[in-house]
Model the fold of this input.
Amino acid sequence: EKEEMLEGMVIIQQGDSGDKFYVLEHGSAQIKVNGQTLEQTVKPGSAFGELALMWNSPRAATIVAMEDCILWSLSRPLFRRLLATSSSNQTVQLCEFLQNVDLLKPLGNQETTKIARALKSEMHSDGEYIIRQGDEGDVFYIIYK
Done:
């Protein structure tokens, strides 16, 4: 859905429940976290709002239009439907899995998502050695199934 925001309007408010995913077509927006303005700005082509939708968590930042903006939004149900049919679904599944790994439990949603996106799957046969004592430890393994 196409949305227009005037300069100074709040697009999303930190702490609110996430109900939409946004892509900025025209304009620019400020990012504020806990009242502090970040140097990074939202520029045309940028997407935001996905974390709150993926994790059913409150918005992590406030986004304010710095000028008149044109945005495209997806509602939570549509976003989740699209996510379920895309490769991002695998990222969501991996994030859910990683949140149950004791070593990774202290990490936040953003860190967990970064790890999930960086993971590479390897298949090993029954009885095959994955690592051997004395090998250089340059890979971190998590057994998925």
